């Protein structure tokens, strides 16, 4: 009997230490705007940088087995639209080839906030990047603090956070990026 009780306690202790529940797919799909971006190599995400993305719409299909992204990137001074469908790989990671090889994860989602983490390998260096997106045009102070925590956990300095929403709007918003 003591062995059964000990096993039950061990199972409960282990269960309490598991990683948090997976991302709720019902919260992912919809209109999202990139508010903040941060990177350990900030050159990649500054205005005009190759990985400064302006997210617009995200679709999560089949329990996020497929993730569709609609976003803009400013290339050579021109705003260009991209639409990509990514297939989930082992560990909840998605792969996209864009300015190198990118391994992407959704690391946080709530009603108003979605955060991507990805690592970009451009053939010379691996850059860690986060993108904080909102359903509106800003984060609350609590959401910004959560975003900063997520950056710190991944070794991305918070002084490398860039306010993306300040650089203008994409063509689907009736104005062009500055």
Automatic annotation (TrEMBL):
Signal peptide interval: 1-16
Renumbered residue ranges of the record's region Disordered: 158-178
Alphabetized GO MF terms: odorant binding; small molecule binding
Principal place of residence: secreted
Any matching Pfam family: Lipocalin
Compartments, as annotated in UniProt: Secreted
InterPro entries per the UniProt record, alphabetical: Calycin (IPR012674), Lipocalin (IPR002345), Lipocalin_CS (IPR022272), Lipocln_cytosolic_FA-bd_dom (IPR000566), OBP-like (IPR002448)
Biased composition (Basic and acidic residues): 169-178
Ranges for domain Lipocalin/cytosolic fatty-acid binding: 29-164
GO cellular component: extracellular space
Keywords assigned: Secreted, Signal, Transport
Gene3D superfamilies per UniProt: 2.40.128.20
Alphabetical list of PANTHER family matching this protein: ALLERGEN BOS D 2, LIPOCALIN
Family in the record: Belongs to the calycin superfamily. Lipocalin family.
Name of this protein: Lipocalin/cytosolic fatty-acid binding domain-containing protein
């Amino acid at each position: 009997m003591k062995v059964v009780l000990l096993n039950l306690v061990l199972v409960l202790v282990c269960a309490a230490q598991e990683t948090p529940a997976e991302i709720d797919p019902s919260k992912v799909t919809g209109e999202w705007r990139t508010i903040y971006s941060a990177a350990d190599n900030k050159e990649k995400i500054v205005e005009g940088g190759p990985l400064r993305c302006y997210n617009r719409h995200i679709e999560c299909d089949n329990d996020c087995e497929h993730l569709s992204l609609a976003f803009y990137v400013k290339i050579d001074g021109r705003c260009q639209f991209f639409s990509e469908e990514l297939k989930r790989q082992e560990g909840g990671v998605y792969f996209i080839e864009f300015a190198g090889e990118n391994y992407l994860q959704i690391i946080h989602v709530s009603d108003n906030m979605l955060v991507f983490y990805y690592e970009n390998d451009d053939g010379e260096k691996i850059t860690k990047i986060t993108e904080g997106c909102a359903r509106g045009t800003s984060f609350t102070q609590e959401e910004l603090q959560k975003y900063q925590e997520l950056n710190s956990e991944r070794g991305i300095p918070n002084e490398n956070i860039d306010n993306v929403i300040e650089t203008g709007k994409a063509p689907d918003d009736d104005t062009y990026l500055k």
